Amino acid sequence: MYRPTSRHEWWLCVVLFTQAILTITLEIYILVEWQLWVTSTITQVPVSYMIPINLGILIFACVYEFILAVDAIHNKNNVLLFSICICNICSFVYSVMQYISVKDTTMRLFDNRYGSPTLIDTTRNLWPQIRPAEILVAVITGLGSLLVCSFVYLLHREYSWVIYKSVQGSSKTRRRYLFYEIFLVLIKLLFYFLLGFIIQYNLVYVHFKEPEYTLTMLLIPVAFIVMLLGIWAVQHERAVVVVAIIICYLGLLSYLISRIIILRGALTAGKDMMLFFASVCVMLTVAAIFCTIVCIKNFDRGFKVINRSKNGHALESYSIPGNSITEPSRSFSRPSSRPTLD
C-alpha cells in the first residue's frame, strides 16, 4: 500500500482516518441501540431499512474518502483532492440531515408506541440516548471538513509544481492531462453514488423480489470491475478496451434513466433520496463518457511519460527537510513566477 511521503500528506490521511474511525464507532453504537429498541415486527414497515441504510451510507462515505485520499496523493491528482473536499462537506451536510431524520423517526415511533403491532420497546425512548452520538457525528464531519480543506490547499500548491515539471511547462499538455484526471475522479465518484443507489433501491423498493434483486446486486461487482478496468485501460492507452468501457457506461445510463422513470411514479419510502442518488449517477455517467472520449483522442500524446515522471518529481520535491519544494534539475529551468495550474 502506498505511504504518504510529506508532512501535509500524512496530516490529510490522519484526519480522514480519524474521522472514519470515530464516525464508524458512533454509527455502530447508534445502529446497535436502534436494533435493541425495535422489535422483529419492525420489518413490516420501510423505516426498518431506511435508518440502517442511512447509517451505512455515511460509514461507507468516510471510509471511501480515506481510500480516495490515499489514491489522490499516490497519483498527485489535484482534481481528486478538491473532490474529496466537496465529498467531505457533503458528508457533513448528510450527517445533519441524518440527525433530523433519525430524530423525527424515533420520536414518531415513540409517540405511536402503543399502536398495533408493537414496533418498539415501549419502556424507553431511544432518542435521548443516541442524540449525543448524532451530534458528535455532525461535529466530527464538520471539523474534518475544515481540516481537510486546509491540507488540500497546501497539497495543491505542492502538486501543481510537480505536474508543471511533468508536462514540461506546456499549457496544452496540461489541459489534455486535466481531462484524464477528471475522468479518474468521475468514475471513482460514480461507483460510490451507484452503490448508494443500488443498496437503497434493492432493499426498499425491490425488497428481495427475484430475479430483479439478485440481478441488481450483481451490478455492484460489475461496476467495480468496470471502474478498475477503465482506469487501467486509460492509463495504458488501450483504445479497444476503453471503447468497451464506454458501451458499458451507455448501458448503465439507460438503466438509471429507466429506474428514475419508474421511481417517479412509485409510492415508496426514501423515494427522494433514491432519485437524488440516481440523478447524480446519471450526471456523472454522462460526464465520464464525455471525458473518456476526450481521453481516447489524446492517446499517444505523452500521458504515459507524465504518469511515470510525476512520482519521480514528487520524490525529488520531498527530499529537502521541511517539505520545501526543490529547485528543478539543470535540464529544466524554473520560471521566475510559477503560474496557477488548477
Output the helix-strand order.
Answer: HHHHHHHHHH
Number of domains: 2
> N-to-C terminal Cα separation, in Å?
27 Å
For the residues shown, what is the average pLDDT? Answer: 80
Low-confidence stretches: 311-342
The total count of strands amounts to 0
Which percent band covers the strand fraction? Answer: under 5%
Share of helix, binned: over 70%
How many helical elements? 10
- Main sheet specs: none
What gross morphology would you assign? flat
Structural class: mainly alpha
* Rg value: 23 Å
Transmembrane segments: 12-32, 47-67, 79-100, 135-156, 177-201, 213-234, 241-262, 274-296
InterPro entries: UPF0658_Golgi (IPR040410)
Keywords: Membrane, Transmembrane, Transmembrane helix
Protein architecture, described:
The relative contact order is 0.11. The chain has two domains: 1-166 and 304-329, no CATH class; 191-298, no CATH class. Helices cover 76% and strands 0% of the residues. With 342 residues, it is mostly helical.
Summarize the helices and strands and which ones pair or pack:
Blueprint: H1 7-37, H2 47-75, H3 78-111, H4 127-166, H5 171-206, H6 212-217, H7 219-235, H8 239-264, H9 271-297, H10 303-317
Helix pairs in contact: 1-2, 1-4, 2-3, 2-5, 3-4, 3-5, 4-10, 5-7, 5-9, 7-8, 8-9
Key traits:
76% helix; 0% strand; disordered C terminus; 10 helices; flat; 2 domains; mainly alpha; 342 residues
Compose a concise summary of this entry:
This protein is mainly alpha-helical. It has ten helices and no strands.
